[in-house]
TrEMBL record:
Residues 1-28 form the signal peptide. Residues 242-282 are annotated as: Disordered. It comes from Candidatus Merdiplasma excrementigallinarum. The chain crosses the membrane at residues 188-210. This is TPM domain-containing protein. Residues 36-151 form the TPM domain. Residues 253-262, 269-282 have a biased composition (Gly residues). Keywords: Membrane, Signal, Transmembrane, Transmembrane helix.
């Protein structure tokens, strides 16, 4: 009896350890990633350090990337393309966001990827741009990054809004967010125990069937009677239904204004990755 209790306790402890490992944010052990790239030389050293610290803190808490970039020369690219290319070239996870101050195109741009497309819906991106635009217009570039990060942190704490969905701007395809069910340590332990019990039941059933087969083979065999019947299936009617599926976006879907919940307008960007976001000229 004591041995059985000990085994059950061991299984429970292992299940708890497994859940703890799963709940640890991806990449939380990485300490020295660069979050700020001031190529346009718009930030002073103390501001860069502050932004690095704040973005790194969010990374450790969520496992998502938060890049803050300034550009003096976009290389002939539009702000959206530059931001998305930069993200894909420097990402260590597809879940993240890049905030770009593009001095070449004179545009403030926010690009979202992965899970951040759900957190930063179109209306929330507008809020970020509202907060950052005034500061950029006054030449307070560090303040623009700071307030956008603060707003992002608020949205992360609020969580993904209920009913959030993505709308592909090219195809009109809608992808609804499915909130994952949280599994408690007790539920995990019960699942493990249930699995062990099920495995034992299957083993016992197979063993019983095998023994029954041995007993059956030891009995005198009788010649079975073979009866054949002829069955015919006749196809009487066949119907084919054609349905036209429109490829264009549903009315009012652009910009998250369609009913049924908040949305993010997305598109296929750099490297085939799906991006959301938006920008504003200054």
């Amino acid at each position: 009896m004591k041995r059985t209790k000990g085994k059950v306790l061991t299984v429970l402890l292992m299940a708890c350890l497994f859940i703890c490992l799963l709940s640890k944010p991806a990449g939380a052990g990485e300490e020295s990633l660069a979050w700020v790239d001031d190529e346009a030389d718009l930030l002073d050293e103390s501001t860069e350090e502050e932004l690095e610290e704040r973005a790194g803190k969010l990374w450790k808490e969520t496992g998502y990337q938060f890049m803050l970039v300034t550009a003096a020369d976009a290389g002939g690219k539009e702000a959206r393309e530059f931001a998305e290319d930069y993200y894909m070239e420097h990402q260590s996870t597809l879940d993240g966001v890049i905030y770009l101050i593009d001095m070449d195109n004179r545009e403030l741009y926010v690009a979202t990827s992965g899970q951040m497309r759900y957190y930063l819906t179109d209306s929330r991106v507008d809020r970020l741009l509202d907060e950052g635009y005034e500061a950029v217009g006054e030449g307070e570039y560090g303040e623009a990054f700071r307030v956008m990060l603060e707003e992002t942190e608020k949205f992360l704490k609020q969580g993904i809004p209920d009913g959030t969905y993505l709308v592909d701007e090219d195809t009109g395809e809608i992808t609804r967010y499915r909130r994952p069910k949280r599994i408690t340590a007790l539920e995990a332990a019960m699942a493990v125990l249930a699995g062990i019990g099920s495995g034992g039941a299957v083993f016992a059933a197979v063993l019983a069937a095998y023994r029954g087969k041995e007993n059956h083979m030891s009995q005198p065999s009788k010649s079975p009677e073979l009866k054949l019947t002829v069955s015919r299936d006749r196809l009487t009617n066949r119907f084919i239904t054609h349905r036209h599926i429109p490829k264009g976006p549903p009315p009012g879907s652009h910009g998250g204004r369609m009913g049924g919940g908040p949305s993010s307008t997305v598109h296929t960007g750099s490297g085939g990755n799906s991006f959301g976001g938006g920008g504003r000229k200054f």
